Model the fold of this input.
Amino acid sequence: MPEPLATSPLWLQHSGLPQWLNDEVHKNAWLVFKTVVEIDCLRNAKPDSIEIPPSEIAKFCGLEPKSVMRILEGLRKKKCLALFLPDHPDETALIEIKTPLPTPRLITEVLDEFPFNCQESGTQYRYAIVDTVPEKVISAGKRELQRVVDLYLNTIGFKMNTFILDELRLLCQRFEPEDVEKAFTRAAKNDIRSLGWVAKELYRVNKKRSKPATAPEEP
Done:
């Protein structure tokens, strides 16, 4: 079997995004962002969240883990990523590339250039346009997210912004609603006001549940 190959949407390299990220975020921002894109393309048929420790991204990029953590935070501030960043680079981060992705040049401008002008009219360009989602699915997702937001406000605190909302949405998408509610309940019971703790608890429970059952020893 041939080695799996990670690919990156070519239109991004013509969009002005590489230079813009390096100028506005960090000199290695495009390297980190492109690596996240490649991982997403490798793991997901359509854009979706990925779970990966920042230290692993650092290995792929040849950078220090703490530097990658800062770059990921910078990419979030530029609204290129939705992100749940752990306290330590060896812990799992939840990362999602924003769609539509903000780029210096519009997709319509990019499509006028080679090699895109030879593509069929129905070609879809990853991260350029949001896929159409049925209204019922949207409504159900909004109800689940609102429930998680209420749990956050009642347990963690009243501070709310777009970054925190993205974090809650990622947790809502990744874990079962019952597990999320139980994690917030445990946090409240122990007077813990940390969303990071809630995420660690969710991963702990999920990891424990996924372990194969141990066969009983023979007498």
